Amino acid sequence: MSRRKFLAQSGLIAGGVLLQNSAFANLYQKGEKILKVGIIGYGDRGSGIKSVMDSLPDLFDVVAVCDTLQFRLDNAKKLKTYAYKTKDYKKILDDKQIDVVVIATPLSEHYHIAKDSLLAGKHVYLEKAMTYTSAQALDLVNLSKKYSKQILQIGHQYRSSPLYYKVKDMIESGYIGKVTHIDCRWDRNWNWRRAVPDPALERQVNWRMYKEYSGGLAAELLSHQIDFINWAFKTNPQEIFATGGIDFYKDGRETFDNLQAVLRYKDAGMIGTFGATCANKKDGYLFKIKGSKGAISLLVNEGVIYPEKEMMEALQTVDGVTGATKITWNKDGGIPILNEPTKDGTWYALKDYYKSIIENKQPDSNVITGAKTAFCVDMINQAAYNDKIQYWKPEFNI
């Protein structure tokens, strides 16, 4: 095969890989309708979503924020003069002008507020993980079927980017061959602790550290990569092995600061290793997908493919008549998947969410995909805390 023919078939071009996914070919530049938004939970994530929505003024208009902590409401200084702040999320649900509710609360509250929001007739953007338990996820799936006119999108924002769509295309086309191993990490050297203005607020501010509120590292970090694998391969793990511990920060936390899990996708013939530690940041965000023809290495907004011998030979074959399309190799022998880094994933996710509401269609990150990821997170935690292998249940096949 000539290199030019190979490039044409694979989508590779000079400096990177063609973006071919139509979902991002015709993004709305100006909204057909500006959606009024109420944000419930105004910590780091809620205020971050508001910042992205503010950069999309033709699509979204944040008119209210809710948080149970007064100092967070006090931090909401950039609200428009007609917007309001409240500690009672029911006030937002009762507000007829509000089209969309963003839920960015502790995980333990996701299900209850999402359920109330659907019953109130609101569209819902629900942060990951979708629910705290598998039972809650199943109930939310059933409830969403009854309220199908309301669009529920789950905030696994990284896979909304063009990069991750392209990688999904590459996997589905067999471009990197048969994938047998996925290697994922999300490491940091940080205690995950936020400043507490009043010791009485410790559990509310640092809720990620306490089992009553949090799914820990599996929910807050590893769920993104797990969600992508489920989606891209149209699969789910049949077995989950996991272990963890509070191995570094002896500060009263209850959720693990060191977690390692092995997910066995028997139907797909794959093994996924997923891990996170709070005591070393060397790998940071690591996401490797290893196929028989090549390996893909992903960051949040950049990706590189490393060809195996078969693919390398095809790339290096030169058509003597028409000449060769130049491939840009990086210093360690990889090819950039896109020409330049993508935007923050939340920007793409919110664009996709707006489009889904306007067109009255389910988003890619929906209640079904969100539930399957929530099942995985719950299984990892059950396996790690109880030292017992977890198996996919028949009722999870939704």
TrEMBL record:
Residues 35-155 form the Gfo/Idh/MocA-like oxidoreductase N-terminal domain. Pfam families: GFO_IDH_MocA, GFO_IDH_MocA_C3. InterPro entries: Gfo/Idh/MocA-like_OxRdtase_N (IPR000683), Gfo/Idh/MocA_oxidrdct_glycsds (IPR050463), GFO_IDH_MocA-like_dom (IPR055170), NAD(P)-bd_dom_sf (IPR036291). It comes from the Bacteria. One of its GO terms (molecular function) is nucleotide binding. Residues 165-296 form the GFO/IDH/MocA-like oxidoreductase domain. This is Oxidoreductase domain protein. It comes from Pseudopedobacter saltans (strain ATCC 51119 / DSM 12145 / JCM 21818 / CCUG 39354 / LMG 10337 / NBRC 100064 / NCIMB 13643) (Pedobacter saltans). The lineage of its organism: Bacteria, Pseudomonadati, Bacteroidota, Sphingobacteriia, Sphingobacteriales.
